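Postdoc handover notes: sequence design on the structure in folder B. Input tokens:
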């Protein structure tokens, strides 16, 4: 079976090239601990491989023998647009990576569906004020979960899809969208992803969830990578733990690895050290 690279070079090499296709992987963690940077690095490096093979070789290296790139890279957001996400990528990765990679990332901004029933002025998220016609059709637009499902059904097969972030959906729970709706979509996503054969990566800030909500998301995903801050002396370190991941966790256990230390470099997030059972 050929794996799909996460785009995080040293981590990919440890786990045999990347994730088995057909997986949904949840990136959860504390604010700033590395989950968002992992997501951004995955998007940029997989896109860079298509856009500029020389730069990809320079910053990532060679793909593993049993690894293949996804055909396309899709970056989905509920609250921000392509320009903003491009600026965010530039905070994490070197400019030449971002400049080349952006041409190979397909962005989908769900802001119109996400904010349509909120009190947020329309010009804040689409850049123009509402017209009389807009007001008349406001309640007939597709809801955000249906729009997300349709987009995934059309674009997820065989591709890398990054969702930034499930935290936004949790924040939108209301009379129109219950937490149980989100949990059900996540469970359905896992079943569909198995047939689509690509890789779907979901980002969530666990500080916004209760234990039950986080447990349901973890259960719905095929793999969970958890990011935390650790303090020792005068230093803080970002750490990553693979809590669950069929087809991957056994490789990590075979190497006696219990935790990865990660940091941010010009090639994005990568593993700086591993901690093993002594």
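Designed sequence:
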């Amino acid at each position: 079976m050929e794996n799909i690279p996460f785009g995080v070079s040293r981590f990919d090499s440890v786990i045999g090239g990347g994730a088995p296709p057909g997986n949904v992987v949840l990136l959860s963690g504390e604010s700033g601990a590395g989950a968002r940077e992992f997501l951004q690095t995955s998007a940029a490096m997989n896109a860079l491989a298509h856009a500029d093979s020389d730069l990809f070789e320079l910053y990532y290296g060679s793909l593993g023998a049993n690894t293949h790139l996804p055909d396309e890279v899709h970056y989905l957001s509920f609250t921000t647009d392509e320009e903003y996400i491009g600026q965010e990528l530039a905070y994490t990765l070197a400019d030449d990576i971002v400049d080349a990679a952006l041409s190979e990332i397909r962005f989908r901004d769900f802001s119109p569906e996400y904010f349509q029933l909120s009190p947020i002025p329309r010009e804040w998220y689409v850049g123009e004020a509402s017209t009389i016609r807009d007001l008349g059709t406001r309640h007939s637009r597709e809801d955000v979960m249906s729009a997300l499902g349709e987009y995934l059904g059309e674009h997820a097969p065989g591709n890398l899809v990054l969702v930034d972030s499930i935290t936004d959906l949790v924040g939108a729970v209301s009379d129109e969208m219950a937490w149980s709706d989100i949990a059900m979509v996540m469970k359905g996503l896992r079943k569909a992803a198995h047939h689509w054969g690509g890789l779907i990566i979901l980002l969530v800030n666990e500080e916004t969830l209760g234990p039950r909500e986080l447990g349901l998301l973890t259960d719905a995903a095929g793999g969970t990578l958890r990011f935390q801050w650790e303090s020792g002396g005068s230093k803080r370190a970002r750490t990553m733990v693979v809590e669950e991941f069929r087809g991957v966790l056994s490789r990590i256990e075979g190497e006696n690895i219990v935790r990865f230390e990660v940091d941010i470099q010009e090639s994005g997030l990568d593993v700086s050290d591993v901690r093993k059972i002594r």
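Context for whoever picks this up: The chain has a mean pLDDT of 88. Don't rerun without checking with the PI first.
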